[in-house]
Amino acid sequence: MDNQTVADFWDDFAPDYVAAQRESRLPITTDLTAYLTQQNILPHARILDVGGGAGRFALPFAQVARQVTISDISQQMLNFAQQAAQAAGLTNIEFQQIAWSQLAARPQADVVFASMLPLAPKDLAKFSQFARQVAVLNRAVTHTDSISTELQQLLDLPPVDDPTNDAAIFQKYVQTVRQLGYQPLQQTFTYHLTEQVTQEMLVAELDDELTLDQKKVFAAWCVKKFADNREITAQQTYVFKTLLWRLELQ
């Protein structure tokens, strides 16, 4: 897709995306901020958050860093970030509406950071050039749900295209950083959550995707699972990985 199409998509999707972020129970922003602070990466630094969206990471980073620039292709996402920054009383955040591919390949901050930015491994050379000192990538690499897994196996459903289930790309990042001559440092954040699920929720999610035979199997499964319960519990696991490399160690 061209940049304008991508920008239009994120402008339209921004309210729902921000609402989902606000409802998230995952403490990844707090934990990652603490980790990067302990690594002496955030304190007193100028940070460029590429594809920073509504400021999910940039706002907590700004509590520690000297200055943070949020760069994003979507003006609507940046509007949400600006509103959140004002509400938090943060004055050390700047906002830059631009596609990451259009950023000049030169140092623009002490630290360049991106979370879930759709970078190909070949893009890491340019990504590294945005920073003077440290480059940091954060990515959700695993998301499992016990009920979804059980139903996929029971009904022989195709795997869901989930961008938070892509550990392979992270390993390619590690290999590429090493090929560039840097020594990558990795950190893993794992979270276990539970969610209460009703039969109505599952029917709404699956009914249109099932064949008649699959619906019969699904109905029998529901009778068994919900026989004595209005809700059942799904066990969920989320794994995030952070990759950082210090540019001065090349």
From TrEMBL:
| Coiled-coil spans in chain | none
Signal peptide as annotated in the record: none
Write the Enzyme Commission number(s) for this entry. Answer: 2.1.1.222, 2.1.1.64
**Residues of the Methyltransferase domain:** 47-129
One GO BP annotation here? methylation
Tell me yes or no: is Transferase among this UniProt entry's keywords.
Answer: yes
- What Pfam families does UniProt report for this protein, alphabetically? Methyltransf_25
Q: Which GO terms describe its molecular function?
A: 2-polyprenyl-6-hydroxyphenol methylase activity; 3-demethylubiquinol 3-O-methyltransferase activity
Entries under InterPro entries matching the protein: Methyltransf_25, SAM-dependent_MTases_sf
**Keywords annotated in UniProt:** Methyltransferase, Transferase
Gene3D superfamilies in alphabetical order: Vaccinia Virus protein VP39
Q: What class of enzyme is it?
A: transferase
Q: What is this protein called?
A: Class I SAM-dependent methyltransferase
